[in-house]
Structures are given as C-alpha cells and as structure tokens.
C-alpha cells in the first residue's frame, strides 16, 4: 500500500512539473520583448503555436508551450546581413 501511495504522489508531481511547461501570453511577450498584442496576433495568424483556453468573454486566453518558444531560438535560420 505504501508503494501505491508513492507512485500516486509521483504522478501528481509529474503533472505539476508539466504545468510549468506552459507560458502565458504576457510571459512570452516579456521574454521576446514585445507587446502582449503582438504575441496574440502571432498566435491568431498561426505564426506561434498555442493552446486556447476555454473562455466566455471577448478575449481568448492562450498558453504557449515552453518548447515552442525554445524552438524559435534554436532554429537554424540564416542570419540577416547588413
């Protein structure tokens, strides 16, 4: 029985850790040094993948996965020359 409780606790801890993987629009905007509206525009245009949260108002809530944001910086895009 003790083992069962430990495994259940491990699953709960895993769920908590994975929730830290989601970033708010404001967190993404601060990280990229842009306005919240810009991040929302990127999400709506499909330039940035996000999870839409259930809502009942005008503005939809979004969460961006951390690995999506990390992929923007790790892409091998050619550098612009001046």
UniProtKB/TrEMBL annotation:
Signal peptide: none
Entry-linked SUPFAM superfamilies: Putative DNA-binding domain
InterPro entries reported for this sequence: DNA-bd_dom_put_sf, HTH_17, SinI_DNA-bd
One Pfam family this sequence matches: HTH_17
Domain Helix-turn-helix: start-end pairs: 22-76
UniProt-listed Gene3D superfamilies: 1.10.1660.10
MF terms (GO), sorted A to Z: DNA binding
Name of the protein in question: Helix-turn-helix domain-containing protein
Species in which this protein is naturally found: Tengunoibacter tsumagoiensis
């Amino acid at each position: 029985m003790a083992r069962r409780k430990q495994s259940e606790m491990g699953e709960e801890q895993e769920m908590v850790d994975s929730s830290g993987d989601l970033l708010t629009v404001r967190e993404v905007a601060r990280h990229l040094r842009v306005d919240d509206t810009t991040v929302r525009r990127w999400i709506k245009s499909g330039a940035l993948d996000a999870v839409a949260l259930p809502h009942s108002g005008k503005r939809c809530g979004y969460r961006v996965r951390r690995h999506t944001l990390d992929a923007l910086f790790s892409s091998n895009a050619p550098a612009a020359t001046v």
